[in-house]
């Protein structure tokens, strides 16, 4: 079987925001790479990213180089700078070949933190620059696909970005599990979902430091990387179901990425429990508490438009397959991020508690269907 990597990454670099792609109105504010003590940071609006210590900390992997040399962090990775930054596509294809990956769908790294800037037009320009860069860099490539990014603080701009990303060759659009301090069922987001559905793109809900109200509770990266980084995906899952978004857009393909699969049982169980309780009991007392969704939560899963990524070592993966079906789970390598496991697809192939048919679905068939690939 081929391996289709549903969630790889690229490390942004100065080319991402070069004159070729960045709106001329914002070139004087171009993100800059700053080197310090063997590490590198993006300077955006005179703020440094990543911010590994202090309130609201986050640990992004980008930038991985400064003046053409790898940072301390990047030097420890098996990937070359050319592969991580896509300056040489053959370098990325080489390491994909080493890990038996036939096709890889690429996601950003810098845009896994929110907010990068409070300047709304500027932030939209950065998103557009990223999309134009990848669209140009990967145009016509059969093995490297990509998803676009949008600024959900600028919904008209996000709608335009969806249509532009589609023209540039994107196979999906990435958002985080919240739109800042708004949940994903916020009415202001509906035009964005309409555009994604109209273009028949995949909506990808990816882990990231999405919600300032949560981010700012933490001053240490370890617990922040567990709660602030991961929990918004679960919040996004609940919001899209409970807020009726899936009723409005029943054919929209949605994937929840990089939070593993162990949470799925827990969240579906709690959603089902509350749905039944509210429908049978509470709603009869206070009508405003009736669920906004039309169907029980599991019914949306059974539509086969919701997908979930799994870690190859997830202990409960056989039970997840039994719950949601083998046709809705995908594999993501997380290449080239620092906490990934190399040769992960091989580890899944070697598991004895998962059928050969399920392995083929997870490693190949499901991602093809999810992203509309052939």
Features:
374 residues, alpha/beta, TIM Barrel, eight-stranded parallel β-sheet, three-stranded antiparallel β-sheet, 13 strands
Structure description:
This protein has 374 residues and is of the alpha/beta class. The chain has a single domain (4-31, 88-371), classed as Metal-dependent hydrolases (TIM Barrel). Helix content is 39%, strand content 15%. It is built from 15 helices and 13 strands. The strands form 3 sheets. An 8-stranded parallel β-sheet has the order 1-7-8-9-10-11-12-13. A 3-stranded antiparallel β-sheet has the order 2-3-4, with no helix packed on it. Helix 5 (155-168) packs parallel to helix 6. It is globular and about 65 Å long. The two termini are 14 Å apart. The model has no long low-confidence stretch (mean pLDDT 95).
Helical coverage, percent range: 25-40%
The fraction of residues in strands falls at 15-25%
Q: The biggest beta sheet, please?
A: 8 strands, parallel
Shape call: globular
* Overall residue-averaged pLDDT value: 95
Output the structural class.
alpha/beta
Order of helices and strands: EEEEEEHHHEHEHEHEHHHHEHHEHEHH
Give the SSE layout.
Blueprint: E1 4-9, E2 32-36, E3 39-44, E4 47-49, E5 65-66, E6 69-70, H1 72-75, H2 81-85, H3 89-98, E7 103-107, H4 120-137, E8 144-149, H5 155-168, E9 172-176, H6 190-198, E10 202-206, H7 212-215, H8 221-226, H9 231-242, H10 245-248, E11 254-257, H11 263-285, H12 297-302, E12 306-310, H13 317-324, E13 329-331, H14 344-349, H15 356-371
Parallel strand pairs: 1-7, 7-8, 8-9, 9-10, 10-11, 11-12, 12-13
Antiparallel strand pairs: 2-3, 3-4, 5-6
Helix pairs in contact: 4-5, 5-6
């Amino acid at each position: 079987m081929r391996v289709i990597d549903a969630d790889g990454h690229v490390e942004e670099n100065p080319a991402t925001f070069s004159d070729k792609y960045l709106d001329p109105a914002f070139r004087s504010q171009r993100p800059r790479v700053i080197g310090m003590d063997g590490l590198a940071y993006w300077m955006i609006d005179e703020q440094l990213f990543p911010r590994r210590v202090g309130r609201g900390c986050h640990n992004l992997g980008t930038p991985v180089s400064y003046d053409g040399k790898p940072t301390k962090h990047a030097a420890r990775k098996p990937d070359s700078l050319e592969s991580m930054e896509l300056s040489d596509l053959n370098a990325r294809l080489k390491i994909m070949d080493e890990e038996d990956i036939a096709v890889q769908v690429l996601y950003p790294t810098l845009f896994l933190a929110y907010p990068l800037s409070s300047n709304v037009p500027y932030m939209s320009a950065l998103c557009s620059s990223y999309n134009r860069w990848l669209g140009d860099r990967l145009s016509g490539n059969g093995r490297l696909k990509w998803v676009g990014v949008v600024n959900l603080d600028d919904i008209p701009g996000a709608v335009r970005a969806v249509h532009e990303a589609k023209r540039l060759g994107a196979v999906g659009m990435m958002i985080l599990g919240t739109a800042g301090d708004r949940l994903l069922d916020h009415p202001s987001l509906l035009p964005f979902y309409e555009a994604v559905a109209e273009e028949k793109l995949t909506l990808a809900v990816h882990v990231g430091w999405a919600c300032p109200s949560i981010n700012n509770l933490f001053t240490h990266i370890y617990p922040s990387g567990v709660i602030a980084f991961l929990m918004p995906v679960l919040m996004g899952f609940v919001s899209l179901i409970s807020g009726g978004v899936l009723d409005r857009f029943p054919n929209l393909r949605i994937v929840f990425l990089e939070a593993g699969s162990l949470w799925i049982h827990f969240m579906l169980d709690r959603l089902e429990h509350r749905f039944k309780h509210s429908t049978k009991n509470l709603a009869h007392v206070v009508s405003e508490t009736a669920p906004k969704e039309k169907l029980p939560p599991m019914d949306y899963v059974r539509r086969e438009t919701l997908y979930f990524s799994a870690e190859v070592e997830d202990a409960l993966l056989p039970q997840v397959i039994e719950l949601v079906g083998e046709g809705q789970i995908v594999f993501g390598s997380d290449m080239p991020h620092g906490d990934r496991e190399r040769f992960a697809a091989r580890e899944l192939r070697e598991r004895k508690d998962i059928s050969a048919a399920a392995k083929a679905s997870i490693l190949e068939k499901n991602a093809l269907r999810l992203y509309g690939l052939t």
